[in-house]
Design a protein that fits this description.
Shape of chain A: globular
Structural class of chain B: alpha/beta
Structural class of chain A: mainly alpha
Oligomer: heterodimer
Number of domains of chain A: 1
Number of helices of chain A: 16
Shape of chain B: globular
CATH topology of chain A: Formate dehydrogenase/DMSO reductase fold
Number of strands of chain A: 0
CATH architecture of chain A: Up-down Bundle
Largest sheet of chain A: none
CATH superfamily of chain A: Formate dehydrogenase/DMSO reductase domain
Strand content of chain B: 15-25%
CATH class of chain A: Mainly Alpha
CATH topology of one domain in chain B: Alpha-Beta Plaits
Number of helices of chain B: 34
Radius of gyration of chain B: 28 Å
Strand content of chain A: under 5%
Order of helices and strands of chain A: HHHHHHHHHHHHHHHH
C-alpha cells in the first residue's frame, strides 16, 4: 500500500507489510511499561498540565453558573421559543453522544475485528467516550422545563402506577444512553484492571499503591486472570458493538419519529451513526495529536494511527455526504411540498448560512483532502481537520434541530432562533468540563493500555518453544 | 433577551447596593425640586425611603412613568431599562428593587384585615362554593353599552360574557368587554383619595366639595366645571339635568378623545340592519373588527349570517377605506383611499346613485378608482332597497350625511337603515365636544374656572395638543380627578378620588338599540372607589342618595308601567334590561345639507388618527391581555407604530422598526414604522392610546403618544411631514418575523405581489376559498386534491377507538370569522392565561392558546386577507401524544387531547411535533403568583400553570365537566349546545361551533359533514377534530381582477 509520496525505505514503514508501523521498533515490555506508567507515576506535574487544567476548570464553572441560573429561572433563559422548542441543549446532547461513539467503536468493534492498531488509542478514546457521555447526559436532564422531575422519565415503580410513555423516542433515549454509559464504564474499567495491577506494583508512594491496589481488584497476572480478562473483554466488546449502532440510531429516532419535515426521514439511523463515528474520530484526533506531542508518544501512537483514523473519517464522511445527498434528492423525488420547502428553506432561507457551514466543514474540506496520505500523516493538518469536522458535525445537528423547526407546516407560526449567552455558556462549559475530566484521566490513569501494547510486541508472540515471557507485569 | 437582562440585573443591583453607602438624604431636595435634572437611583431610593407603608406602590406609580425615573433606571441599570417596560421581568425587577429599598413599604397592595376573621357559620343562601352564579349587568362603552352576563364565583366576578338573552348581542362580546375583568382587578388602580399627592380620605374631599357646592348655591354654580367622558348612563344624565337646575351656571363638558368630532358624538346614530342587505358598502367604516364601531355585535352577526350558507345567496361587501381594517380585508372588493379622499368619494358615489342636492368636489380620481365607483354605483342601484351604505365613524361628519343621502336615494331607509327616536326623552348628545373643550380651556386660561371636576377622563393625556390642557389645568383653583388610576391627569389634579369600576357600582347604560341595561355591581369596591353618580348626586337635594337609589328613581315610572315596580325591577335585573326602553324607529330620516371637504393635496403626507384597536383611546393601557393581543391586520402587540404602505416605506427610505419623526405644525413625535398591507400611499396611520406615562406597570412606556400631534381642528386626519431619524424600536409582531423576505423569496416576483407566507399558505392548502361561481360549479372544492376523500379518513388498519357517548369536535367557519379577536380575550379570561411581556412576545413566547392566523392574498398594496382562528386541533391521531415520554398529554375517552399539567416535565417534544404549533410552553414563570388582586380574578376551575409546563387549548374541558355533572344529575345525555367554549361564546359572528360529533344530528356534526369543511394539513393523517369551513367570496364579476387561479386545495 505504499504510495509514491512515502518511500519504502522510510523508517516509519514496516518493511514486512509496507504500511506504517503500529509501534515504533525497539520497544520491550519494560520500556513500554516505563513509557506509559511513568507519565502517571511521576511526582512532578508539568506546568502546562496545570495551565490547561485551570483553563478547563475555569470554563467548566460556566456550566455551573449557567445551570444554576437555569434552575432558578427556567429554560426561558435559553433561546428556545415557539416554534423552535429545542435548541442548543439537544444539539449539544447529540453532538457529545456522537463524539463518544468513536471510543466504543475503537474499543469494541475493532477488538472483534482484531485490529491491533486500535490498542494504542483504545484507552483514551474510551475515556473520551465516557466524558463525552457525561457531558451529553447533562443536557437531557437540564433541558426539561422542570428538571427536578426529570426522574419521571425512568420507569420507577410508584404508588400511582404511572409509567413512562413507552412510545416516546425520548424514553428510548433514556434507556439507550444509560445502557451506553454503563457498558462504556464497565468495559473501560475492565480493560484497566491489568494496568492497575502494573501501576500498583510500580507505585512509589504507599497511597498510590493502595488506591491502584484497590482498583486492580487483586490482579496478579496469573494465567487464569488473563483468561478471564480476555473472555470478559470479548463479551463486553460483544455487548458494546451493537450499542455503537443502536445508541445513535435511537437518538436519530428523536427526530425520525416526529412528523416535522426535515426530521421525518428513514435515512436518519445510518446517517446518524456514520456522523457519530465521523465526529468521534475527529475528536480522537483532536485529543491524540496534542497528547502524542506533549508526552512524546510518537512511538506508540504512530502515523499508522493517524493514517487509519483519517481513512475511517473519510469513509464515514462519505456516508454522511451520501446522507446529505439523499436528503436533497428525496426532497425532490418525494414530490412532497413539505420536504421540498424544508430543503429549500434549509439551504436558502434566513438561516441558510448554517447549512453551508455544515457542507463546507463536513464535505467540502475533509472529503477533498483526506484522500492524500501525506496529509493524513501531517499532524497540523489532521489537527485542524479534526476541529473543522467537529464544527461541521455540530452544525449538522444545529441544521437538523433548528432549521427544521423554525419554519414548519403553518406559515403563521414561523419564527427564528438566536442563541443567548446562557446557551453559549452551557455549551462551552461542557467543553471545559470535558477538558478537565480528560486531563485528570491523563494524569492519574495510564492513557495507553500497557498490557495490550505489550501483546503486540514481538516478544509476546508465543511460539512452541518460547520461554514464558518474563517481566510482563513490569 | 430577557435572560441576559436578568443577569445584568443581578449584577447591577448589587452594584447599586454598594453605592447606597452614600449618606441618604444628601441629594433628596435636588431630585424633587428640579424636574429637568435626571434622577440618580440613589435619589429615587431616598425619595422612596421617606414613604411609609402602603404608599410605596402609589409612589412607584408616580415615579415609574416619569422620564426622569426611566432615565435614572436606564443610567444605573443599562439593561434593566428595557425590563422596566416588560411587566413580567419587571416583577423580578421589583423584587430585586424592593430588596434594596428596605422598609420602603412592601405591604403589597391588598390589605389584610387587622381583626380576626372567621369563615361562614351559616352559608349564604345563594352561595354554593364551587358553583358559580351568573348575574346580568352591562359594560358601558361610549359607542353603546354591551349587556353582559357575569360569572361570579364566591362573589368574585371571574368571567364576563355577553347576555345571551339580550336581543342586541345574543351573548356575544368583544375584546374590551372581556378585558374589563382584568381592568377591575388591576393592581395599579388607585386606592386612596389624595390631596396634592398625599393620601387623604374621601370624606375630606367630600367636605371640601360640599362646602364649595353650598357656596355655589348662591351664585348658581358660577365657576363650577365638570369635564367627563360621554355620559353613557341615563341616570347620570338625569342627575345632571337636575343638578343643572340647582346650579344653572355650572358647566358640563363631555369629551371622548376617540369620538369627539364624529357624527356619532353629535347624536347621529342610525341603525343598520344587514339581514336584508345584499350589497354592503363600508365607507371607511370598520364595523367588523371591534366594539369601537357602534352596533358592532349586531352588524357582525348579521353580516356573518348571510355568509353561512352561500348556496342560499350571500351578501357582497365593498369597502372603501383608509387604514386597513379587517372589514376591508374581508370585503369582496376593497378600495384603499386616503382618509381625506373618502368624503369626496362618498359624494361622488352619492351623485352617481342619484342622491339629490349633493355636489361632489372635483377631484382627479384614477382610472381604477373611477371604475370602482362606477361598478359600485351600478351594483347599489341594482340592489336598491336591498343594500346599505355604512359611513365611517372616524370620518368627517359629512360622510355620515352622504351615506344617509345614498341610502335615502336607494330607498334603503326604513329597510336596512332606520333612525331611532329616543322614547324616554333624555336626549343627551353634545353637538360639539371639541368646541366645548376649547371653551373650557379658554375659561381655564381666563381664570374663570374655580373648581374643575374631571370624571373618568384623562385630558392631560388625551386632549388635543394645541389646547395645552396641562398648562390650563394649573390655572383652575381646585381641580378634582375621579379616576381609576392616578394617571397623567390624576397626578396633576389637586384632588384625586379613586373611581369605582363599573363592576363595583350601580349604574345603567343604553345598548345600540337603545334598550337600557341596569349595571349591577358584582363586588364591593375593592379600593372603596366612588362614581360620577356620587359626585353629581352631591349637588342635589338628597346628596346621600346612592347610585342604586338613583338608578331606581330614573326607571321607576318606566318599569311601573308594566306592573308593580319592585317586581319589574327584579325582573329587569334578572333579565339584564328594562322592557320598553328600546328606542322606536322613526318613520323616515332625511339627510340634511352636506358640506363635503375637499381632499388634501395628493402630494401632502397624510396622517390618519384612529383609536387603537386594542387599548382604544388609552383607557385600557394597563390591561395586559389587550396589550399582548396581536392587533388585527398588523399582528403587532405591546406598541403602536406608524402604519404605512410598502411603497411609502420605500419612499421614506426606512425599514420596519426604524424610527420616523412626524411633525405636524411644529409638534413632533417619534414613532416606529410598520407596514400595513393595503394602507394608502403617502399616508400614515397613528393609533391613539399609547405612549402613556402613568398608565401603570403594564401600560406605561409602551408605544408612542399620537395625541402629541393631534390637534383640535383635525381630529381624524391632517397633513404633516415624516422623516427618518436614527434609532430602532424593537416591535413585537407575532406573525412573520421576516418582513424583508416578503417579496424576495420563492413564489414572489420581487414586487411584493406575493408574500412567501401567503403563497405557502395557499400551496399548502392551509387556507382554502372559492368564489361563489366556483363554489356553485364545484361544491366540493375545499377537499379537492386531497389524497383521501373526506369520508375515508378514519379508515385505518387498526381499529379506531369507539366513542360510546360523546366525541367532542369543533367547526370554525372561515367565511364568518372577521378576525375581531374577541375569542382570544375570552380565552385569556376563561383559562387563566398568563401575560408574558413584550420581550417574550418578540422572541415568540406569547401564551395565547388561540391565535388568529392572518394570511394575505394578492397584491401587497391591495390585499385580501384570510383569518383563521387556530387553536389545538385535538387530533384523533395526535403527534404530540406519541412523543411525550411521561404521558403528560393523552387522549381522553371523549376524544380530547388533554394536558396533564402536573405530570408534564417540560421536554417540549410535543410542541416541536405539533404541526399546528398551538402548544404553549411556560419558558419562565409567566403566571403571576404574587399579585393579590389577580388571584381573585382567576377561574378556579382551571389550574394556573407554573414554569416548565406545556399548555394549550383544552376545548374548555372545565365547561364540559360542568355540563356532564349537570347531565349526570338529571340522568340524561348532554344536550347539543349545552357546552359552549369560551371562544365560541365570545364570537359575535358565531363562527365557532362546538359539540358532540358522535351525535350526527348535532349542529357541529352537520357542519363538519358539509362539503365545504376541510381539515388543515389533512395529509398528515392527524385527523383533527377542529375543522374549517372554507370561505366563499361573492365578487362582482365586473370588478374581477386578473382572473385568480384557484389551484386545487392540495398541489
Amino acid at each position: 500500500m505504499a504510495t509514491k509520496d512515502i518511500k519504502p525505505e522510510d523508517p516509519r514503514i514496516d518493511p514486512k507489510t509496507g504500511e506504517f508501523r503500529v509501534l515504533a521498533p525497539g520497544f520491550t515490555f519494560k520500556t513500554v511499561t516505563a513509557k506509559i506508567a511513568d507519565i502517571v507515576l511521576t511526582p512532578t506535574t508539568s506546568l502546562g498540565w496545570f495551565a490547561l487544567f485551570s483553563v478547563g476548570g475555569a470554563v467548566a464553572t460556566l456550566v455551573i453558573v449557567a445551570v444554576t441560573w437555569l434552575f432558578l429561572k427556567g429554560t426561558g433563559i435559553w433561546a428556545v421559543s415557539q416554534p423552535v422548542g429545542w435548541g442548543f441543549a439537544i444539539i449539544n446532547f447529540v453532538w457529545w453522544i456522537g463524539i463518544g461513539h468513536a471510543g466504543t467503536l475503537i474499543s469494541a468493534i475493532l477488538l472483534l475485528f482484531k485490529q491491533q492498531w486500535r490498542n494504542s488509542i483504545n484507552r483514551f478514546a474510551e475515556a473520551m467516550t465516557i466524558f463525552a457521555v457525561v457531558c451529553a447526559g447533562l443536557f437531557p436532564l437540564i433541558h426539561v422545563g422542570r428538571p427536578w422531575l426529570a426522574y419521571w422519565l425512568f420507569p420507577l415503580p410508584n404508588t400511582m402506577n404511572v409509567w413512562p410513555q413507552f412510545r416516546s423516542p425520548l424514553l428510548w433515549d433514556v434507556f439507550a444512553v444509560s445502557t451506553y454509559a454503563t457498558i462504556s464504564i464497565v468495559f473501560w474499567y475492565v480493560g484497566l484492571i491489568p494496568d492497575f495491577g502494573t501501576m500498583r506494583d510500580r507505585a512509589k508512594t504507599k497511597f498510590a499503591a493502595y488506591i491502584y491496589g484497590l482498583l486492580s481488584l487483586g490482579w496478579r497476572g496469573s494465567v487464569r486472570h488473563w483468561v478471564r480478562y480476555e473472555t470478559a473483554s470479548l463479551l463486553l466488546a460483544g455487548l458494546a458493538t451493537p450499542l455503537v449502532l443502536s445508541v445513535h440510531t435511537v437518538i436519530s429516532f428523536d427526530f425520525a419519529v416526529a412528523v416535522i419535515p426535515g426530521w421525518h426521514t428513514t435515512i436518519f439511523p445510518p446517517y446518524f451513526v456514520a456522523g457519530a463515528v465521523y465526529s468521534g474520530f475527529a475528536m480522537v484526533l483532536t485529543l491524540a495529536i496534542p497528547l502524542r506531542k506533549f508526552y512524546h508518544l510518537e512511538a506508540l501512537v504512530t502515523d499508522r494511527h493517524m493514517d487509519n483514523m483519517g481513512k475511517v473519517m473519510l469513509t464515514t464522511g462519505l456516508i454522511v455526504a451520501y446522507g446529505y445527498g439523499m436528503e436533497v434528492f428525496m426532497a425532490w423525488y418525494s414530490a412532497s411540498h413539505w420536504e421540498f420547502f424544508m430543503m429549500w428553506n434549509r439551504m436558502f432561507g434566513p438561516m441558510g448560512w448554517s447549512y453551508w457551514v455544515l457542507i463546507l466543514c463536513n464535505i467540502a474540506i475533509p472529503l477533498t483532502t483526506l484522500w492524500v496520505r501525506k496529509w493524513r500523516t501531517n499532524m497540523t493538518f489532521m489537527f485542524v481537520m479534526s476541529l473543522i469536522v467537529n464544527t461541521g458535525m455540530w452544525f449538522e445537528r444545529f441544521v437538523i434541530v433548528v432549521t427544521s423547526l423554525y419554519r414548519d407546516f403553518l406559515p403563521s407560526s414561523w419564527g427564528t432562533y438566536r442563541a443567548t449567552k446562557w446557551d453559549y455558556m452551557t455549551y462551552f462549559g461542557t467543553m471545559g468540563l470535558f477538558t478537565a475530566l480528560f486531563l485528570l484521566f491523563v494524569r492519574f490513569l495510564p492513557m495507553i493500555p500497557m498490557n495490550e501494547i505489550k501483546m503486540m510486541l514481538p516478544s509476546a508472540k508465543i511460539t512452541a518453544k518460547a520461554k514464558p515471557a518474563v517481566g510482563a507485569g513490569d | 433577551m430577557s435572560s441576559e437582562h436578568g443577569n445584568g440585573m443581578i449584577k447591577d443591583v448589587s452594584g447599586a447596593e454598594d453605592s447606597s453607602a452614600f449618606p441618604a438624604g444628601m441629594t433628596t431636595q435636588k431630585a424633587t425640586s428640579t424636574a429637568e435634572a435626571p434622577l440618580t437611583l440613589d435619589q429615587v431610593r431616598t425619595k422612596l425611603s421617606g414613604v411609609k407603608g402602603k404608599r410605596y406602590w402609589r409612589s412607584i406609580d408616580e415615579l415609574a412613568g416619569t422620564p426622569e425615573f426611566e432615565a435614572a433606571v436606564a443610567k444605573e441599570f443599562p439593561d434593566a431599562a428595557a425590563e422596566w417596560v416588560d411587566p413580567v421581568s419587571r416583577r423580578g425587577f421589583l423584587k430585586l428593587m424592593s430588596a434594596s429599598l428596605a422598609l420602603a413599604g412592601l405591604a403589597g397592595c391588598t390589605k389584610q384585615p387587622d381583626e380576626p376573621i372567621y369563615p361562614y357559620v351559616r352559608q349564604p343562601e345563594d352561595l354554593v362554593l364551587g358553583k358559580a352564579n351568573y348575574f346580568a349587568t352591562a359594560h358601558p362603552f361610549p359607542t353603546g353599552g354591551l349587556p353582559l352576563l357575569v360569572k361570579s364565583d364566591a362573589y368574585r366576578p371571574i368571567k364576563l360574557d355577553g347576555n345571551p338573552d339580550h336581543p342586541y348581542n345574543l351573548g356575544s362580546s368583544d375584546i374590551f368587554a372581556q378585558a374589563t375583568l382584568l381592568d377591575l382587578y388591576d393592581p395599579d388602580r388607585s386606592q386612596h383619595a389624595t390631596l396634592r399627592g398625599t393620601t387623604t380620605e374621601y370624606v375630606d374631599f367630600l367636605g371640601a366639595y360640599r362646602d364649595r357646592l353650598n357656596e355655589g348655591k348662591k351664585d348658581g354654580g358660577e365657576g363650577l366645571y365638570f369635564l367627563s367622558t360621554s355620559f353613557t348612563s341615563p341616570t347620570l344624565q338625569r342627575q345632571w339635568i337636575e343638578a343643572q337646575k340647582a346650579y344653572p351656571k355650572a358647566r358640563l363638558v363631555q369629551y371622548d378623545p376617540a369620538l369627539a368630532g364624529t357624527a356619532f358624538s353629535k347624536g347621529v346614530s342610525p341603525q343598520y340592519s344587514l339581514e336584508g342587505a345584499d350589497v354592503i358598502v363600508a365607507l371607511d367604516a370598520d364595523f367588523l373588527s371591534g366594539a369601537g364601531y357602534p352596533g358592532f355585535h349586531k352588524l357582525t352577526r348579521e353580516y356573518a349570517a348571510r355568509r353561512k350558507n352561500p348556496a342560499k345567496g350571500m351578501n357582497r361587501l365593498y369597502s372603501v377605506e383608509s387604514t386597513p381594517s379587517t372589514t376591508g380585508l374581508k370585503a369582496e372588493h376593497r378600495l384603499g383611499l386616503r382618509a381625506s379622499e373618502i368624503p369626496a368619494f362618498a359624494a361622488a358615489l352619492a351623485v352617481a346613485v342619484g342622491a339629490a342636492g349633493i355636489s361632489a368636489p372635483a377631484y382627479s380620481w384614477s382610472a381604477e378608482q373611477t371604475k370602482f365607483l362606477g361598478v359600485l354605483a351600478k351594483d347599489l342601484k341594482a340592489n336598491a332597497g336591498k343594500s346599505v351604505v355604512i359611513p365611517g365613524l372616524y370620518q368627517d361628519p359629512s360622510v355620515a350625511a352622504l351615506a344617509l343621502a345614498i341610502n335615502d336615494a336607494l330607498g334603503n331607509v326604513g329597510k336596512t337603515v332606520t333612525a331611532l327616536v329616543e322614547t324616554d326623552g333624555l336626549p343627551f348628545a353634545s353637538p360639539d365636544q371639541i368646541g366645548d373643550l376649547k371653551a373650557l380651556v379658554a375659561d381655564l386660561n381666563a381664570g374663570k374656572v374655580d373648581w374643575l371636576v374631571m370624571l373618568n377622563s384623562n385630558p392631560v393625556y388625551d386632549a388635543p395638543a394645541d389646547l395645552e390642557f396641562k398648562t390650563a389645568l394649573g390655572k383652575a383653583k381646585v381641580s378634582v380627578h375621579l379616576g381609576s388610576h392616578i394617571d397623567e391627569t390624576g397626578a396633576e389634579a389637586i384632588w384625586h378620588v379613586p373611581a369605582a369600576h363599573y363592576l363595583e357600582s350601580w349604574s345603567d347604560v343604553r345598548a345600540y338599540d337603545g334598550s337600557v341595561s341596569v349595571i349591577q355591581p358584582m363586588i364591593e369596591p375593592l379600593y372603596g372607589g366612588h362614581t360620577a353618580h356620587d359626585l353629581i348626586q352631591a349637588m342635589l337635594d338628597e346628596p346621600q342618595t346612592s347610585a342604586y337609589e338613583a338608578v331606581r328613581t330614573t326607571w321607576k315610572s318606566t318599569i311601573a308601567k308594566g306592573g308593580e315596580f319592585e317586581l319589574g325591577w327584579r325582573k329587569a335585573l334578572h333579565k339584564g334590561w328594562i322592557d320598553g326602553t328600546a328606542n322606536t324607529v322613526a318613520a323616515s330620516m332625511k339627510p340634511g345639507a352636506v358640506k363635503v371637504p375637499t381632499p388634501l393635496p395628493k402630494e401632502a403626507f397624510e396622517l390618519i388618527f384612529r383609536p387603537d384597536p386594542n387599548i382604544y383611546d388609552g383607557r385600557y393601557s394597563n390591561v395586559g391581555w389587550l396589550q399582548e393581543l396581536p392587533k388585527p391586520v398588523t399582528n403587532l402587540a405591546w406598541d403602536n407604530a406608524a402604519l404605512v404602505s410598502g411603497a411609502t416605506l420605500t419612499k421614506l427610505g426606512i425599514e420596519e422598526g426604524e424610527i420616523l419623526e412626524i411633525t405636524v405644525g411644529g409638534r413632533k413625535v417619534k414613532t416606529p414604522v410598520l407596514v400595513a398591507p393595503g394602507h394608502p400611499d403617502n399616508a400614515a396611520t397613528l393609533h391613539l392610546g399609547y405612549g402613556r406615562e402613568a398608565a401603570g406597570r403594564v401600560g406605561s412606556g409602551t408605544g408612542f403618544n399620537a395625541y402629541l400631534v393631534r390637534t383640535s381642528d383635525a381630529p381624524f386626519y391632517t397633513t404633516g411631514s415624516a422623516v427618518k431619524v436614527e434609532g430602532k424600536w424593537g416591535i413585537a409582531v407575532t406573525k412573520s418575523h421576516f418582513q424583508d423576505h416578503r417579496s424576495k423569496m420563492e413564489g414572489g416576483d420581487g414586487s411584493g405581489t406575493h408574500s412567501l407566507e401567503g403563497n405557502e399558505a395557499e400551496t399548502r392548502g392551509v387556507i382554502r376559498s372559492a368564489t361563489l361561481e366556483e363554489y356553485k360549479a364545484n361544491p366540493g372544492f375545499a377537499n379537492e386534491g386531497e389524497e383521501h376523500p373526506k369520508v375515508e379518513r378514519d379508515n385505518s388498519m387498526f381499529p379506531n377507538w369507539e366513542y360510546k357517548d360523546n366525541a367532542w369536535g369543533m367547526s370554525i367557519d372561515l367565511n364568518s370569522c372577521t378576525g375581531c379577536n374577541a375569542c382570544i380575550v375570552g380565552c385569556y379570561a376563561e383559562n387563566n392565561i398568563a401575560v408574558v411581556g413584550k420581550q417574550q412576545v418578540r422572541i415568540g413566547r406569547n401564551m395565547q392558546w388561540l391565535r388568529i392566523d392572518t394570511y394575505f392574498e394578492g397584491d401587497l398594496a391591495a390585499p385580501k386577507a384570510h383569518f383563521q382562528p387556530m387553536a389545538c386541533q385535538h387530533c384523533e391521531n395526535a403527534p404530540c401524544e406519541q412523543v411525550c415520554p411521561v404521558g403528560a398529554t393523552v387522549h381522553t375517552p371523549e376524544g380530547i387531547n388533554t394536558m396533564v399539567y402536573n405530570r408534564c416535565v417540560g421536554t417540549r417534544y410535543c410542541a416541536n411535533n405539533c404541526p399546528y404549533k398551538v402548544r404553549r410552553f411556560n419558558f419562565l414563570l409567566f403566571s403571576d403568583y404574587e399579585t393579590e388582586s389577580l388571584k381573585l380574578m382567576r377561574n378556579p376551575d382551571v389550574s394556573v400553570r407554573s414554569r416548565g409546563v406545556m399548555e394549550k387549548c383544552s376545548y374548555c374541558v372545565q365547561r364540559i365537566s360542568e355540563a356532564k355533572i349537570d347531565a349526570d344529575k338529571e340522568n340524561r345525555a348532554i344536550r347539543d349546545g349545552e357546552v359552549v367554549t369560551a371562544c365560541q361564546q365570545a364570537c359575535p359572528a358565531s363562527a365557532i361551533t362546538f359539540g358532540n360529533i358522535n351525535d350526527k344530528t348535532s349542529k357541529v356534526a352537520t357542519l363538519l359533514a358539509e362539503e365545504r369543511t376541510y381539515s388543515v394539513l389533512a395529509d398528515l393523517n392527524t385527523r383533527p377534530r377542529t375543522q374549517y369551513t372554507a370561505a366563499v367570496l361573492n365578487p362582482n364579476p365586473e370588478l374581477a381582477e386578473a382572473p385568480v387561479e384557484h389551484a386545487p386545495a392540495k398541489g
